[in-house]
Amino acid sequence: MIDCEATLSRRSLLGASATLAAWAYAPRFAFAAQGRDARLVTIILRGALDGLSAVPPLGDPDYAALRANIALSRDGASPALPLDNFFGLHPAMPNFARLYASRQALVVHATATSYRQRSHFDGQDVLESGMAGPGATDSGWMNRMLQTLAPGERIGQHGGLSIGATTPLIMRGKAPVLGWAPQSLQRTDEDTLSRVLGLYQNRDPRLASALSAGMATEGIASRSGMRGKGPQRGVDYMKQISAGAAHLMASHDGPRVAALAFDGWDTHFNEGGATGALARVLGGLDDSIATFETVLGPVWKDTVILVATEFGRTARVNGTVGTDHGTGTVALLAGGAVRGGRVLADWPGLKPAQLYEGRDLAPTTDLRAVIKGVLADHLGLSPETMRRNVFPGSDMAAPMRGLIV
Amino acid sequence: MSSPDQALVALHRFGLGASAGALARIAANPRASVLDQLGQNTGLPGSNLPTSDAAIRTARMDELERQDERKRLAVQPAAMDEPDAKAKPQSRPVAQTIYLDEATARFSAFATTQTPLIERLALFWSNHFAVAINKAPVVRASAGAFEREAIRPFIFGRFADMLRAASQHPAMLVYLDNYQSIGPDSRAGERNQRGLNENLAREILELHTLGVDGGYAQEDVTSFARILTGWTMVAPGDDGFFGGRFTFSPTRHEPGPQMLLGKRYEQTGVEQGVAALDDLARHPSTARHIARKLARHFISDDPPQRLVQELQDTFASTGGDLLAVTGALLKAPESWSAPLAKIRSPQLFLAALARAAQRRPETPALLNQLNLLGQPLWQPAGPNGHPDVEDAWASPEGMVVRMDIAMQWARFNATLDPNALTEQILGKAATRETREAVARAGSRAQGLAILFMSPEFQRC
Lengths: 405, 460
Description:
The structure holds 2 protein chains of 2 kinds. Residues 1-16 and 220-232 of chain A have low confidence and may be disordered. Chain A contains 12 helices and 13 strands. Chain A has one domain (15-187, 251-390): 3-Layer(aba) Sandwich (Alkaline Phosphatase, subunit A), CATH 3.40.720. Chain A is globular. The longest helix of chain A is centred in the C-terminal third of the chain and has 20 residues, at 277-296. In chain A, helix 6 (141-148) packs across helix 12 and helix 7 runs antiparallel to helix 8 (205-223). By secondary structure, chain A is of the alpha/beta class. By secondary structure, chain B is mostly helical. Chain B has a domain at 346-458. Helices cover 57% and strands 3% of the residues of chain B. In chain B, strand 3 and strand 4 (263-265) form a beta hairpin. At the A-B interface, helix 5, helix 7 and helix 8 of A face helix 21, helix 23 and helix 24 of B.
């Protein structure tokens, strides 16, 4: 790895922040009578997850050459974890691999929303609004879905959820939601710090030297424990908020439907292969999923966690050991209610002519079809409701059935 | 060096930052947008806050009740069957409630005022005549009123009047200990062990008027302290009508004439001090001290000498007319040509965030952010006030905390479009590098944080 000074390396552990938004009601789902009290968690990865590194197509003959110095392989010091004969899993995700082996996790590969440009903000707008294009509405698909469900008991407060934290677009809308973020001043992630530092290096040397000195000292302070119980950065924070969310959702009067958003996936620089910036945030995501499994305990069997991102990244590695904005990527499902142990992919291939616009993994599965499949089989939403309220304009994307036990 | 963007000079150097539509509003004539504020109403908009004496009285009554309550609880431990009984009073002290209300009024003004120059001047002058709330509950309860009563009315008035109002205000008299300073030869001094306290006299000379190099000696400090003996406040616990107000106590006042800066002050009583203050306000060293400080605050840590001289001359020739001095500052060519090289103080940073984002956290959270950034409201480390130069604020730790707070505001306002906001609050002053860094951000929150930390946003 190119980086880094010892004092900065702890900071590069980072890269995440998180918020939770949950429905204010514990609804009675269609399946309650059958003994399933369903839980649904959506985790949005902001910044565009590199699906080709999270779930590398090791069996594709063009993969290793495209990925060069960040390619993963089946052998070596940190081999990719085995999924099937074609796909591996990033070595930073042992918990997901374990769930996959016990058929509680699956991967949908070469998937994307209907968005085909490469702006994060617009891409996230499409992912979260559930509309075909950006800027179409100020409500999110999860909120509109909640509006179609009959509210049950208002959820208990437990002192944890409060209104105030920013609600991600995916949960914004008429259905009342509660938001939560841990109280302490959240530390800025390494990625944002380095972007601001880069701007200062170009425009304001005085501020650059102050900020870089501050980042260095802070590294020393935190290693020697001087910060005490100060705010946490990055991957710790992902785990912290997942534990908080899971505790709330485990309760009989807790929320059933929640959305989390994690930052830090925009790996233009030092993304790395088995180790590096992406490995660290993937490790945080893996820990988060494991935390949900542990804390949800008996209701894990009724749970689906959907992990999605606004788009993928370029198939080729760029000049700074990273990747740029792309198109096709992965979506992950984990939980006791998932019919797992499978990678679902209509694999497009990685030859130059097979890449989208000659640069990105081509999307072959509409992410809306995946989500609609989950909503239909996990929460019992009708195709008509989904077509009319949740994903307007998605008629062609038929729900992908059989994702749920 | 090319001139800075004129709209940014108006909004950053002489304002609190751009709010929605501000750039467009002032585009035709940025200078006029600032100059038009000269002479306008300097009151705190829309406030309904207690006078200092009322605040001090209610805070004092509360303090006494809380002392009684603590005593009662100490002799009468909570019974086991009263789970709610606690060992100490639970409610928030009145002084703190008043302080929070005052703070809320300031934050609201920061976010919404149409005359930001006046808020900037209120910040400047109340920091010049600094008081600190952690000195005593009296100061905590009256620091906001101090600014409203002793500073704001004179922002476009005479410096001498502001100096007198500040020096006679209970917040200042308590903060710098003069309320218990007693002339050694006064009636009170003759029957009492206590005596002279030089604190206020020294700081008036060193900080408020002449400046540390302004040409006074220790004997001037001592005799000025004697002159100021008897300047105190009516004890707030004793008098339900006048408690907490300024009063002159002849029994504490040092009798006889005093020499200050080579001049003999014959008058006795309160007029002796008033005359001394008036002369200090007119002193050439005061003109130089104020001119330098104003130019350093608004223009540059190392301000152009010509500008300082012009402000000094204006101050001297108008007898300390602050409307004229401020006008000279705003009309000086340096004010519109010097690069925006200062960094926003924490207060100005939060004010700019509040104006840009149009949605701000609650008062306790904002006060906490000011604490973390090292500029707690009305609580400087010493009577010299909060620092005013880049090195104080662009410190390594300061920048990291600033980044964290920018990120927090960004998350709090993550519904905003960072590209559109960049356009709205920086306009053509946004550099290519900043635009690109904002546009390439991985999330809206990240884009907003980069915008809030960009050099264009930070500099003023």
